[in-house]
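Write out a record, fold above all:
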Amino acid sequence: MRTGLALAAILVLAGCAGGGAERIVAGSGRDRIGPAEFASFAASPAVELHGARPGGASDAEIAAALRLPPRFRDAPFRVTAPGPQSRNETRIVINFGQTGGVDGQALCEGRIGPGQAATGFSAAAAFCRGETSGRAALLTRSDALTPADPEFGRAMSRLIAEAAPRTEPINRFRGD
């Protein structure tokens, strides 16, 4: 029984159970923006997109495929254009083709370098209130994803969940 469970866990971690190997790592950024603000944002989520769109998809196609984490009511994303006007609102900033680490503050401030041509798929996301960064994360996958692929929405939901503020504070003294 234990061997079967261990094998199943390895297959899921390796991505053999439905797609390429996936990795999400936290970037720089802290919970400077609280869960209540994220819940308010989730009522009408805005996304600012950067980098080469996967599969040459349009911004509208990407927005239509994005999903909030499961704990929130499903609401359609609206695209906000990069620039000073978008830096006055609460939004998720996504940079496709991001490699290396992710600096949430740089994403929120619009200091985004060109995305790299990557094997597979990569995207960085930061939850922003104006130019203030909350949490940030980087998603990499060994396979290419496009908004036409149902796994795209699920993968992006996991990325957005990592960039969302935590609902409960971490108690360092208890080791949580």
Remarks:
- The longest strand covers residues 132-141.
